[in-house]
Write a structure and sequence with these properties.
Blueprint (H helix, E strand, L loop, with lengths): L6 E5 L7 H15 L3 E5 L20 E3 L2 H8 L6 E3 L2 E5 L9 E9 L14 E4 L5 H11 L11 E4 L3 H9 L5 E5 H10 L7 E11 L3 E4 L4 H11 L14 E6 L2 H5 L2 H11 L4
Parallel strand pairs: 1-2, 1-3, 7-8, 7-9
Antiparallel strand pairs: 3-11, 4-11, 5-12, 6-9, 6-10
C-alpha cells in the first residue's frame, strides 16, 4: 500500500454500534499510516453475504463484522481475511476489561413476561441472521427448551438492534436479544426510554465482534494496522460519549472456543438460518 492508496475500511456493525465509532477508527488509521482512509457501511447484515466478499475482490482492507462471518471467511481454501489480533474493549462491569459482550433479552417494562420460557408462542425480533448476539445466541438458548425455533409464534428480521428495540418498545413484537453495548448506548442517547424496557435474561459473554484485515495486504501493513489500533483510545474527542476503552489482544482460538460462534458459522455455511 502506497501513500496514494487510501485505506478502505468496511463495517457491518452500524448503526447498532454508531457509525462515527468506525469513522473515527478509519480516520485514526488513515492518519497513522499516512494514506487517508474511507469508510463503507453495510447496514442490514452483520457480515458479508454469500458471493459478496469485498476482501476477496480487493475492495476492502480492514473490516468489522460479527464472529460467525469471520469463521466462514477463514474456512475458504484461500482465506480472504486474517484476524487482527486486537479487538475493542467496551466499558462496563460485565466486560471487566475484556474484549467481550453479551446478549440482553429485552421485553416491555409492563409485560408479564419474566423469563425466556415465558416467550413461548410470542413474537421475536432479531437484527439479521448473521448476528451472534441477535440471532445465533437465541438459537443456542432454544436448544435448552422444547420446540426449537418453532418456540416463537413469529420471528421478524428487523435489520438492526436499534430497530429491534423500537419494535419491542412500540409493542410490535414481544422480545429481542440485543447487543449489550448497543443497548447501553441507546439508553444513554435516549434516557427517557430507560424505563420502557426490561432485561429478563443475559447470555454470554461472547468474544467481541472481530476486526479483520485483507489477507493479501503486505505483512508490514497488517502489523502497523494492529499497532495503530492499540493507540485508538487516544482519540478521545472523536469517541466522546462512546463507552469504548481500548483495543486489547484477542486470538482466533477465542472465537473457535465459543460454541455459539462455531455453530452459527456452521448454520450459515450450510445455508440454514
Amino acid at each position: 500500500m502506497t501513500q496514494e492508496e487510501r485505506l478502505r475500511v468496511i463495517t457491518y456493525l452500524a448503526p447498532s454500534i454508531p457509525e462515527r465509532f468506525f469513522r473515527a477508527i478509519a480516520d485514526h488509521l488513515g492518519q497513522r499510516l499516512g494514506t487517508g482512509a474511507e469508510l463503507t457501511v453495510e447496514a442490514g447484515t452483520s457480515g458479508p453475504l454469500p458471493g459478496d466478499d469485498p476482501f476477496e475482490r480487493g475492495e476492502a482492507d480492514v473490516g468489522f463484522m460479527c464472529a460467525p462471518s469471520l469463521l466462514i471467511l477463514r474456512a475458504k481454501r484461500n482465506p480472504s481475511v486474517e484476524l487482527i489480533p486486537v479487538a475493542p474493549v467496551w466499558a462496563g462491569e460485565r466486560a471487566n476489561g475484556r474484549p467481550v459482550y453479551f446478549s440482553d433479552v429485552v421485553v416491555r417494562a409492563e409485560s408479564n413476561i419474566d423469563s425466556f420460557e415465558g416467550l413461548r408462542g410470542r413474537t421475536w425480533a432479531y437484527n439479521d441472521d448473521r448476528s451472534l448476539s441477535g440471532w445465533h445466541s437465541a438459537l443456542q438458548r432454544l436448544r435448552d427448551v422444547p420446540s426449537g425455533p418453532e418456540f416463537f409464534s413469529n420471528t421478524v428480521a428487523s435489520g438492526s438492534h436499534l430497530e429491534s428495540l423500537r419494535l419491542v418498545t412500540e409493542g410490535a413484537v414481544d422480545a429481542a436479544a440485543i447487543d449489550s453495548n448497543a443497548l447501553i448506548m441507546e439508553r444513554a442517547r435516549n434516557p427517557g426510554t430507560r424505563g420502557d424496557l426490561r432485561v429478563i435474561e443475559s447470555w454470554g459473554p461472547w468474544p467481541i465482534q472481530p476486526a479483520v484485515v485483507r489477507a493479501s495486504l503486505p505483512d508490514e501493513i497488517k502489523s502497523q494496522i494492529a499497532a495503530h489500533l492499540t493507540t485508538m483510545h487516544t482519540s478521545a474527542a472523536a469517541l466522546e460519549d462512546i463507552p469504548f476503552e481500548r483495543f486489547a489482544p484477542i486470538t482466533y482460538d477465542d472465537y473457535l472456543s465459543s460454541p455459539a460462534v462455531v455453530e452459527g458459522a456452521r448454520l450459515l455455511a450450510d445455508g440454514s438460518r
